[in-house]
Design goal:
- By secondary structure, the chain is an alpha+beta fold.
- It has one domain (about 15-305): Oxidoreductase, molybdopterin-binding domain (Sulfite Oxidase, Chain A, domain 2), CATH 3.90.420.
- The protein has 9 helices and 12 strands.
- The protein has helices spanning about 10-15, 20-35, 35-45, 75-80, 120-125, 155-160, 200, 255-260, 300-305; strands at about 105-110, 115-120, 130-135, 140-150, 170-175, 195, 205-210, 215, 225-230, 240-245, 280-285, 290-295.
- Strands 3, 4, 7, 8, 9, 11 and 12 form a 7-stranded mixed beta sheet that branches.
- It is globular.
- The N and C termini lie far apart (about 40 Å).
- The ligand Nc1nc2c(c(=O)[nH]1)N[C@H]1C(S)=C(S)[C@@H](COP(=O)(O)O)O[C@H]1N2 binds near residues 81, 84 and 173.
- The site of molybdenum atom has 6 residues, from loops.
Length: about 325
Amino acid sequence: MLIKSTPSWQMPEREATPEHVFLNRRKFMGALAAGATALIGGNAFAAKEADPTADLYPAPRNKNYVLDRPVTKELDAAAYNNFYEFGSHKRIAMEAGALKLRPWTVSFEGMVEKERQVDIDTLIRAMPMEERLYRMRCVEAWSMAVPWSGFAMAELVKYAKPLSSAKYVVMQTFLNAKMASGQKQVWYPWPYTEGLTMAEATNELAFMVTGIYGKPLPKQFGAPLRLAVPWKYGFKSIKSIVRFKFTDKRPVTFWEQIQAAEYGFWANVNPEVRHARWSQATERVLGTNRRVPTLPYNGYGEQVASIYDGMKGEILFR
Ligand SMILES: Nc1nc2c(c(=O)[nH]1)N[C@H]1C(S)=C(S)[C@@H](COP(=O)(O)O)O[C@H]1N2
Ligand SMILES: [Mo]
């Protein structure tokens, strides 16, 4: 089994990787040596169950969202994911095959006119589907650029009918340790929890994702419903959502519970604010060996910077 010598671009990323992930990578190299590579690649888009919404793809592209770089190759994006429910390393595509996508119910809870649950297919069909080209910047200093399909989160908020007293929307991923072996790691505060202020959730950029590359979302990307908030570090973009809870209390999010000093509630991308353990000035472009400068708000400042006017006391950039 051939293991290439480490290319130089991996060095900054090694520094930019949480310790336990780096250590787990040794195990992953072992899996590679066992010949798992072909399986991971081959399984990336294998459709085992027919998607009941497949007819909605490809969705019409919204031309307002353009990229300053090429779209990441499908297989590069599909074979390098963070989805701790299925393992604390990047090659979780195969493990994520265990994710059962139907039936899938989404609940709207808390400060809403009326709490209710809705079947995912009913929800998706009630929404105006579109495709958008977005960048995504992980806090670990790698990035990708992909065509997401889905609908504006503002549409979902309208559908949920929150009370005017709601200040935040809290989102949670499924909880099922039998299905997702990562959830047996009891030192993580499952289920994965994220949150946005109402101003963030209704900003035009906040996007609910149901597909990618003109197809229903493969499991490892967080099917059947995940978030994309491209001006924030990737960990805000929660996957496989089952719950939206409206509240007037700021939630303590998944990574914040684990390591508040490094991963906060706001997590807006800022090249000038270092992570506790690495620089955020540049990012490795997935599928290449190039590093490019990271932009304030990941290049989306025009749309979102004003949300944070007057929030000087807040730790906005980690
Ligand atoms: N439920 C859940 N959502 C999650 C994560 C996770 O581990 N579990 N990882 C986050 C992180 S750190 C990143 S960078 C993105 C990765 O998205 P991608 O795999 O589609 O590139 O998902 C985010 N959403
Ligand atoms: Mo991330």
